[in-house]
Design goal:
Layout lengths: L1 H21 L16 H4 L11 H7 L21 E3 L3 E3 L10 E3 L4 E8 L5 E4 L1 H5 L1 E8 L2 E3 L6 E4 L3 E9 L3 E6 L9 E6 L1
Parallel strand pairs: 1-4, 2-4, 3-11
Antiparallel strand pairs: 4-9, 5-8, 6-7, 6-9, 10-11
Length: about 190
């Protein structure tokens, strides 16, 4: 008998959190909790067949996330949401970037890195690459989807295009290893 009472108390205790979850406050566009329920909102689902009423009730229970997160069918990675940044240049004696870059966290970006082949050069920036999520790196129409990158090195002339989503706010640099000049780095600020 004691075991039966213990089991009943456990079941009653487990049902309390579920009942608390069901009693969420009503959104502003629905009737207040004390108001009489509207027949069109609640309906008699048990009496209707599967052909009738299923679509209406499902549509009434759907909550659209519009406004801030209205990215369309393809989401954040849609071509319409992508911002093309000014390209970086790897050339002997030339500045890497024309200026600093200001990015927004959650923004989708694409940047080209062009090397002229005048010297074997690389861009290194582990902190920057850890602060972004790389969608892909495209080199000679070959798409690479890496889990992580620390640097990109060019032995010959070519172009690498990186598409990424900025994630962690902060100030980051991509620089040519072994150099200390301000023109030999690209500065990215993620807000």
């Amino acid at each position: 008998m004691t075991r039966l009472l213990t089991v009943l108390m456990m079941v009653a205790g487990l049902s309390v959190p579920a009942a608390a979850q069901d009693s969420t406050p009503a959104p502003a566009d629905t009737p207040a909790a004390g108001a009489a329920p509207d027949a069109a909102v609640i309906g008699d689902d048990e009496d209707k067949g599967e052909e009738e009423g299923q679509g209406e009730d499902a549509a009434a229970a759907t909550h659209d996330a519009t406004g801030k997160f209205d990215y369309g069918f393809s989401g954040i990675m849609a071509r319409d949401n992508r911002t093309d940044l000014a390209p970086l240049t790897l050339a002997s004696g030339s500045p890497v970037a024309g200026g600093s870059y200001t990015l927004k966290s959650g923004g989708f970006y694409r940047i080209a890195i062009n090397a002229d082949g005048s010297q074997e050069l690389a861009l290194s920036g582990g902190d920057f690459f850890r602060a972004i999520w790389i969608n892909e790196i495209v080199i000679n129409d070959i798409e690479i989807r890496p889990m992580g990158v620390h640097s990109i090195e060019f032995d010959n002339a070519g172009t690498a295009v990186i598409s990424f989503v900025a994630i962690t706010p902060g100030r980051y640099t991509l620089s040519i290893p072994g150099t200390s000049g301000e023109t030999q780095q690209a500065v990215f600020t993620i807000q």
